[in-house]
Amino acid sequence: MTADQTTPEAPGPVVIEAESIVKRFGGATAVDDVSIAVRSGEIHGLVGENGAGKSTLMRILAGILTPDQGEVRVDGRPLTGGTRAALDAGIALVHQELSLVPELTTAENIMLGAFPTRLGFTNARQLRGVAATALREIGVSVDLDERVGRLSVALRQFVEIARAVARKPRVLILDEPTATLTPAETDYLLTMLQRLAEGGLAIIYISHRIPEIFRICDRVTVLRDGQLIGTTPIRATTPAALVDQMVGREYKLDLQIRRESTPGEVVLAARGVRAHRVHGVDLDVRAGEIVGLGGLVGAGRTELVRAMIGADIRTAGRVTVTAHGRTRSISSYQSAVRNGVAYVPEERRTDGLALTMSVAENIALPNRRRLATGGVLRRSRVSAFAQRLADSVGLRPPDIRKDAGDYSGGNQQKIVIAKWLGRNPKVIVLDEPTRGVDVGAKAEIHRLIRELADQGTAVLVVSSDLPELLELSDVIHVIRDGRIAGTLSGPEADERSVMSLAAGGGMVGKA
Ligand SMILES: Nc1ncnc2c1ncn2[C@@H]1O[C@H](COP(=O)(O)OP(=O)(O)OP(=O)(O)O)[C@@H](O)[C@H]1O
Ligand SMILES: [Mg+2]
């Protein structure tokens, strides 16, 4: 027990502390004199807008980045020596972006980079045993020999966590682990984290979802523009107060009223679509209409939209795009793009962005033809175009000359969305459009999606964020086991009706 009476919510001794950390990238200060201390058995929330410095601070704790100033201590001893030293000290980080190798199996991924020095194992069978134990510990059953690339995003997320748990950490850092999860999976994860904390683990938990913070955290630290705003026991604050601290101003969480829409002709039509995990789907999206796809992660929504637009192989069925009275079949992704289909994929980091290219280049890439005059791209025109889009999605900092890879996770998502919005597409397919995006940017992206629909674009949205799905969609198809389990619109569409249709098949990935 500790003598510190001011934080009864966190009874254990301090395991890890960072003092006066400063980290600069070029001229910009990503983390500006931040201190944080986390106790054993505590779940410590870390919140802040996109680009606030959360991931950077956590990379410093995990030894991936070296601070320019300040010190990290574990059990009072300074931590130096990079990731290996951090791992040996028992610090495990679950990254914001999935970091597994798709070509390797679950077992191989869990043990990837595991050092026999710490675990005391060397042979393959023992390593497998460790992987199996870690999965059991978090209560998730995944085939150890399945290639990770074939797992649903939710299962991959759980494998990432198993990977961290297999290292027997004393400090577990999770950077937005629920961004890819449905409410049921999130619920499962949060309960699991509470159990791990009860066992004495110190947990640092990053999320943009305020209710999660209030549900599981003992204390919460707020960062803004790289600076420490404060650390507060969760019982001493409120969601509104926390959001105020994050954005530094009074912020009204605007609950949008559903749009009045008068959809036009059918633009995107799918008939009898079959593919991996998709078992026969018919669906239409009209001009000016926003069609939402709800359901659990793993229900086949991503597989469905990818098969529809030719990004993955379709085993049966026909998909057409109709524009200017002409109907064309979509046989490949190229033909989809040619016929005015834009696609904002789920895994933006791998599918959506060229990280070593500038923001301007990334935004210009799919819009080359429009921006070129006589086959020549004019730099000033590209800049003006890219800047306008970057501003409209609220990119921070709004510097389009910087490499996309230098932006925070949420800001990278805004760049991908910006580049497709610029095309003024006939059809836009968005998979989890605001995952990992902060509250302000989210409202902004919703506004942009509505604007596109109002201009006549046919919009198809996959979202696991129920309020988002309900707020955006004119019609919601709930997908379960690769089929449409039900279709909802108007007042009958609410959280309960979507969830009950979605949950008919039970939860994915839970033991
Ligand atoms: N490798 C890098 N090079 C240059 N700048 C970087 C680099 N990594 C981060 N930054 C900058 O540091 C700042 C903090 O980024 P960080 O990723 O820590 O934010 P975050 O709070 O995790 O945001 P998000 O919620 O979007 O994930 C941002 O302005 C970002 O652009
Ligand atoms: Mg981050």
From TrEMBL:
Presence of the UniProt keyword DNA-binding in the record: no
Molecular function per GO: ATP binding; ATP hydrolysis activity
Subcellular location: Cell membrane
One Gene Ontology cellular component: plasma membrane
N-terminal signal peptide: none
Subcellular location, principal: membrane
Membrane disposition: Peripheral membrane protein
Domain of life of the organism encoding this protein: Bacteria
Coiled-coil region list: none
Keywords tagged on the record: ATP-binding, Cell membrane, Membrane, Nucleotide-binding, Repeat, Translocase, Transport
Location of the ABC transporter domain: 16-250, 257-506
InterPro entries found in the cross-reference section: AAA+_ATPase (IPR003593), ABC_carbohydrate_import_ATPase (IPR050107), ABC_transporter-like_ATP-bd (IPR003439), ABC_transporter-like_CS (IPR017871), P-loop_NTPase (IPR027417)
Protein name, per record: Sugar ABC transporter ATP-binding protein
